Amino acid sequence: MLAAAGALGAWGLLTFRRMGTTPEPNGVASSLLTSGPFRFTRNPLYLALSATLAAFGLLLDSAWVLLLAALLALLLDRFVIQREEARLRTQFGDTYHAYARRVRRWL
Q1: What SS3 class is residue 78?
Q2: What's the burial of 80, exposed, middle or buried (CB within 10 Å: 0-12/13-18/19+)?
Q3: Are the beta carbons of 29 and 21 closer than 8 angstroms?
Q4: How do residues 48-61 score in pLDDT, each as one tens digit?
Q5: Which residue, among 41, 44, 26, has the nearest Cα to 84 in the 3D structure?
Q6: Contact 36, 86 (CB under 8 A)
Q7: CB hemisphere CA count around 85 (13 angstroms)
Q8: Out of 65, 78, 84, 97, which could bridge 57 as a Cys pair, Cβ 3.0 to 4.6 Å?
Q9: Cβ distance 101 to 37 under 8 Å?
């Protein structure tokens, strides 16, 4: 699980770099990413981060760390991703709407 999360995160970052846009949550996107891991999830970096924390919870056999992973995913979803998606809807309009209908937020 840890290796898969690391690979997903690296693939997502490489896709940002290849497309010449920023992975910064408050940055201005120069293009809408729909290739690479973005074909399967709209948020591969947040998914990788949450999965990494969950993997550590499993490795450490710690229910607390697993709960923190779930809390992290919830907080990212409600306070970061929703704001990012609002900006992307404004910036890319119908193109983003079509992408959001086709690809799930998480998995």
Answers
A1: helix
A2: middle
A3: yes
A4: 999 999 999 999 99
A5: 26
A6: no
A7: 18
A8: 65
A9: no
